Amino acid sequence: MKSLAIFAGVLFVAFGIGGLVPALTTDGLLLGIFAMSPMQAGVYLASGILAIACALGGENSARYFFRAAGVLYALFAIAGFVQAHTGGELAGLAMNTADNVLNTGIAVASLWLGFVRPGPFIPPPGPRHDLRELA
Fold first, then answer.
1. Can you give the three-state secondary structure of 7-67, one letter per residue?
2. Which of 120, 125, 73, 122 is nearest to 99 (CA)?
3. What does each C-alpha distance from 8 to 49, 87, 130 come to in angstroms?
4. What is the pLDDT of residues 6-47, one digit of tens each?
5. Cα separation of 49 and 27, whole Å?
6. Cα maximum dimension of the chain
7. Which of 19, 115, 13 has its CA nearest to residue 70?
8. Mind listing the pLDDT tens digit for each residue in 80-123?
9. Rounded distance between C-alpha atoms, residue 113 and residue 132, angstroms
10. Backbone φ, ψ for residue 94 (5° rounding)
11. Is the CB of residue 114 less than 8 Å from the CB of residue 71?
12. How far apart are CA 107 and CA 65, in angstroms?
């Protein structure tokens, strides 16, 4: 879980920094796809820094990060879809359809990692038993 939180943190930080680089953000669109505002870049940067800090805090902290991020990004997604017909910004956060899909994906993945996923993707190897011992 810690390594997933670090990975997510690096992606969030990269996305946040990308939103602040004028060469990557033209006409308010990061990579020509995602609507981006300075406040939104700050949210991604803060999410990334928090993810990395939680990962360094241990497995439980990483799981709590994913729970909080899942709820937060679910709220962003819902708010984005609600205001989608108006366009523009919502409380300083630029939103478009690509952002809504991204926020929904982040929310679903984070909620699954935080609440559903019980342990590591690959279970640790268990003890090896010789079947003759069981007979």
1. HHHHHHHHHHHHHHCCCCEECCEECCCEECCHHHHHHHHHHHHHHHHHHHHCHHHHHHHHH
2. 73
3. 10, 28, 41
4. 999 999 999 999 989 888 888 888 888 888 888 888 999 999
5. 27
6. 72
7. 115
8. 888 766 655 666 677 788 888 999 999 999 999 988 876 654 45
9. 40
10. -70, 135
11. no
12. 12
Write b or e for each residue in 82-109: b if 16 or more Cβ atoms lie within 10 A of its Cβ, otherwise e.
ebeeeeeebeebbbbeebbebbbebbeb
Nearest to 102 by CA among 23, 47, 26: 47
The string of DSSP codes covering 117-129 is: --S-SSPPP----
Q: Look up tokens 């990483």; give the residue.
A: 62
pTM of full prediction above 0.90: no
